[in-house]
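User: I'm writing a tutorial on reading structure tokens. Could you give me a worked example: one chain, its sequence, then its tokens, then a sentence or two explaining what the tokens reveal?
Assistant: Sure. Here is the example chain.
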Amino acid sequence: MKIRAVNNPNPITHQHIKGEIKSWYVDDKYMVIYSKTDKYIHIRIGHAVCGDKHDIPYMDIQRIKDEFLGEDKVAIQIFPKKKDFIGKDSPMYHIWHWKDIEVPNLAEIHNYDKELIGYE
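And here are its predicted structure tokens:
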């Protein structure tokens, strides 16, 4: 994975981004914006090229999560109520890690066999 730092979003136009902020391009395909507060880490993943409307593959999001949050951390993606939904025109993914919330291990709950589903 090729990672290079880029300028952070403009704080005037991006007042909604809270905490310590860092930004990178990943593989010259994605822009990653990382923000950290006392309570959570929020990672935004979008295309490096504005206007690119292609979906971002799940495994690319997983690789980015592992790189910027850590392989030992769980991140979740929230699907809001329709009335709270924003960002309809931009394929930007938001993943979150809350410091004081333990998310159950879904592989254990559902008794998945990692070899069977092709995940190492």
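What the tokens reveal: The chain has one domain: 3-117. The helical segments are 58-68, 106-109, 114-117.
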